[in-house]
Amino acid sequence: MTTSTASQPNLATSDSRLLMAAVAAYLGRYRGQSRLHTDSDLKVFLQWSADQPLNPLAAARTDVERYVRWLQDVHCYQPSTVSRRLSVVIGFYRVCVIDEILPHSPADYVRRPLVPPESPTLGLSHLQFEAMITAARLSANINDYALVAMLGLLGLRIFEACGANIADLGEEHGHRVLKVRGKGGKVVLVPLPPAVARAIDRAVDDRDDGPILRNARRCRMDRHAATRRLKHLAETAELRIPKMHPHMLRHTFVTTMLDAGVSLRDVQIAARHTDPRTTIHYDRPQEPRPPPQLHPRHLHGLRNVASINTRSCR
Asked: Which of 26, 64, 146, 244 could disulfide-link to 95, CB 3.0 to 4.6 Å?
């Protein structure tokens, strides 16, 4: 009995170390924000497994199916969220098979939820965005105008806007540009239209270094503080929006350019989408799209966006 009692903790410790090594090997394939988001999604599955209790390295296909049903029925997540978190689990087990930790993946034949071709997120209408940017311009917080301009007029992702520093501002061929660090560590130069440049200058306020966007504590603004500021601006502008969040302004950026008659290829370059199908996925206007009345070349900075991004990708 003494031998069997001593062997159980050793076995548990060995399994725990093996699981930690498998998680580290999987997360080592990512970096930057992708690593943080993947780690967050994987922790949900590991916590669910610990609550069962279930050893993730001993899971079967039915266990992964139960995890998917738990995401759908208990938490009522959107199909896109469930599909993303399932993809993380599938990738984790695939790496376990590659590293010969498992003979086969229990998630190989798990059915993915059906994700609609259109994004469930709606952008702001033209009048709503005009009211939003007016409220930001008149706000006493000098960061509000820059936040709305960087998200809605440049189409930056929230982590790109919050991660921008004063040192990233520069000049390229006579145009003011902002060095943006996007997904996967990709760095591109984005031209600044005059309105966005003025908004950024107002937020910088004669500072020489540090982040462009700051919170009330004079520290770097994060996505949570940015969401709170956007909700406050939406209330100030009296917008009837059920849930305001930063990604709505990126949707607005894409749909506004398409409404102006910009070609899909130019919008893809401006939004820095690798696949044009991603740009189409964003295209969900709230209002009937009018016939194009503005030639793409007349849009300020559009040709510069295409040329600078093309040179930076080389």
From this structure: 26
